Amino acid sequence: MALLIRNGEIVTGTDRYFADILVEGETISRIAKGLAAPEGAEVIDATGKLVFPGFIDPHVHIHLPFMGTFAKDDYKTASTAALVGGTTTLIEMCCPSRMDDAMEQYNIWKAKAAGMSACDYTFHMAVTRYDATTEAQLREIVADGTASFKIFLSYKNFFGVDDGEMYQTLKLARELGVIVTAHCENAELVSRLQAELIAAGKTGPEWHEPSRPETVEAEGTTRFATFLETTGATGYVVHLSCAPALKAALDAKARGVKISVESVLPHFLLDKTYAAREGVEGLKYVMSPPLRDKRNQATLWDALEAGEIDTVGTDHCPFDLEQKLLGKDAFTLIPNGIPGLEDRVNLMYTYGVSRGSLSLNRFVDALSTKAAKLFGLYPRKGEIAVGSDADLVIYDPAYRGAISAKTQHVNCDYSGFEGVEIDGRPSVVTVRGQVQVRDGVFVGEYGRGEFLRRKPVFDNGVTDAG
Ligand SMILES: [Zn+2]
Fold first, then answer.
1. 60 alpha carbon to ligand 1 midpoint, in Å?
2. Could you give the count of Cα atoms lying within 13 Å of 167 in the half-sphere of its Cβ?
3. 19 CA → ligand 1 middle, Å
4. What is the pLDDT along the chain (466 residues), one digit of tens a residue?
């Protein structure tokens, strides 16, 4: 059935204008003022609303065995939460451990989403060990359409790679034209500092941040950039949290290193004092990199507006309170992570655009368009144009509400943003032309979501002989 969206204000990463959008099948077929509705079309009046391209969360965990337990979402709960919050495409981290067979795990990850997801999805493939078998499998995985890698410079002996493996991963990525996303912290420093703090009886969640200080993240970022520079590979720093790490990335970029920067929702709004709260409250706010000193927030917001931070993701990773309590006697045992998939768009809109100075175009660019470009989804995703997928968010800026665990769709018994006010929410959300959400209610279909196969988009160093 055709869909006609009338009288909305269209906002993309670059433009802002009033026009109607006609959707026929799964894609946008016309954009113009005063379009007539084809017979049988559903007409949505978007007067007073903003019409955004569907948002893309480039950093999500759904199936995740980690620290002896599993994150709580499955594709049903996660894709519902994503769509209610305006995210129509998510990129999940496929994270086998160092002990696992990469291909076997890749197939497990894919099977968890297939036929289940209500939104479109794709993966970053984590490289957690590098040997001949893994290399052959990675080539197959890229050929299957998963054209981005993830490496961890931290989490030694589990997800982490050493410098030699990082070098080999980047060389392969360069050859294949694949982007490498990286968790940048110095593993050795983290394990030394953790051991010293625990030995000194400093076991509470407030000691998590001092065990991974800003210097540790700046070192990881610097080292990753140095390896990119040496190999010529293209890289992307995930969940950058502080000014010294940002400086390391920007210095590298200034000398020509192909590096992009992602920051994630919690670091824009929360700070390290949250992890110092009494009892289980503090445990909720343990993630890595940790919540930082509040002074970093202004740096992140400024860098976002300036385009120095390219994208905003969530690092969505819901562990419930019972799981968080596994670390009540030692911060090193607290499952790392916090939910955010459902709240990213509304919170960044509220505190960036509505109550801050972030421009609407930059908001769309950072939460949608830029990720589409970096990860080989553009212009199918991240754009409102004829021929693009009809993933649309008709956003109601007049809505007023607050976030609560009681009303969220994420499978978690708390929200790190409990009671936080929001100025706006998606009124209608479509996935390839099908309405999946109306005013906070999922009205769609599970299994509607497709696995998005992506082609490598970066220079592989081979010059065209012609
Ligand atoms: Zn992550």
1. 6
2. 4
3. 38
4. 899 999 999 999 999 999 999 999 999 999 999 999 999 999 999 999 999 999 999 999 999 888 888 999 999 999 999 999 999 999 999 999 999 999 999 999 999 999 999 999 999 999 999 999 999 999 999 999 999 999 999 988 889 999 999 999 999 999 999 999 999 999 999 999 999 999 999 999 999 999 999 999 999 999 999 999 999 999 999 999 999 999 999 999 999 999 999 999 999 999 999 999 999 999 999 999 999 999 999 999 999 999 999 999 999 999 999 999 999 999 999 999 999 999 999 999 999 999 999 999 999 999 999 999 999 999 999 999 999 999 999 999 999 999 999 999 999 999 999 999 999 999 999 999 999 999 999 999 999 999 999 999 887 777 554 4
Q: Which residues pair with 384 in a beta bridge?
A: none
Place of tokens 């144009």: 385
Measure 45 CA to ligand 1 centroid, in angstroms: 38
CA-based end-to-end distance of the chain: 46
> Measured in angstroms, how far is the CA atom of residue 200 from the centroid of ligand 1?
29
78 with 410: CB under 8 angstroms? yes
Tokens of 177: 């034209």
Q: What are the structure tokens assigned to 234, written together?
A: 């293209």
User: What is each CA distance from 22 to 314, 379, 380, in whole angstroms?
Assistant: 31, 17, 16
